[in-house]
Amino acid sequence: MKISEKTIFTSRGNKIFIRECKPKNLQEKNILLIHGLGEHSGRYKEFAEFFIKNGIGVYALDLQGHGKSDGKRGHIKSFEEYLESVESSLIFIRKKFLETPIILFGHSLGGLIGLNFLIERESKEIESAVISSPWIETAIKIPEYLILLQKVLKRIFPSLRLNNRLISNHLSKNKDVVSKYDKDELVHNKISLNLYSEVMKSIDNVKEKASRIKAKTFLYHGMSDKIISSKGTIQISKLLKSHKLKLYDNVYHEPHNDLEKEEIYQDILEFIKKI
User: Fold this and answer.
1) Alpha-carbon gap, residue 40 to 188, rounded angstroms
2) What is the pLDDT of residue 123?
3) What is the pLDDT of residues 138-189, one digit of tens each?
């Protein structure tokens, strides 16, 4: 597997880091991968290796404020900045491969970004989408007083960042995955008041407009996810016109990093190959 590190710029001039993973032989398709909150593209090496072996290229970007990309950690001014990062990454891939089909993959926050992109951009460049554990509904209900406090403080301190309170043991049952996450210097635990507000608006947007999504979509979620509830994924699946939904028993928030990852990889590959 050949891995190259690239830098591109969005229409706003934001610098975005991309990992380009290519198979030795001709690429049948390409995956554009969008990671979750606080993490980065480098955590998807095993994921990329699997698909590379099956003739599928993987292009994984670091979102603004994450990994090796520019931006204050865990903060954005507008959710549109994320969509522009995806758009710029698509253009980067398409310039290299004029006709090779592109699959959009998004996990957690990346899943929410992916769904919003499919709604707002209606890009003809996307052949299909794979959405993993999308941030639609948190597993633990946030108290109303905290939501109200966030709305008030956001007007005064929009870039104020708080601890996202993510418990790393809830990511995967694989202790090695958790240990590497805890030691990863590119991982952060920040979320700004404005980013949280933009996420909430984007969730509402998906709930309202998900029926507009035209791309064939594979939604999946672990039933034992203690970070993001599978209920939200089930709710969205009922709004999509062309989709596949799979729920995995005893799987945590990161199915691609859990003990059952080989099954998840195979299910994604089967979906991609059938399109």
Assistant:
1) 9
2) 78
3) 998 776 766 777 777 888 888 989 889 899 999 999 999 999 999 999 999 9
CA separation, residue 186 to residues 50, 67, 74, 85, 149 (Å)? 23, 5, 12, 19, 30
In the chain, the domains with their CATH numbers are: 2-274 (3.40.50.1820)
Evaluate if residue 275 carries a pLDDT over 80.
Answer: no
Could you tell me if 64 and 77 are in contact, meaning their C-beta atoms sit under 8 angstroms apart?
Answer: no
In sequence order, the β-bridge partners of residue 103 are 31, 128
Contact yes or no for 17/7 (Cβ under 8 A): yes
Higher pLDDT, 150 or 46: 46
Which residue is it, tokens 């990852």? 261
pTM of the model: 0.96
Residue 215 neighbours by CB under 8 Å, 6+ apart:
104, 118, 126, 127, 128, 129, 242
Q: Report pLDDT for 3.
A: 84
Which residues, at least 6 apart from 42, have a Cβ–Cβ distance to it below 8 Å?
Answer: 19, 67, 184, 186
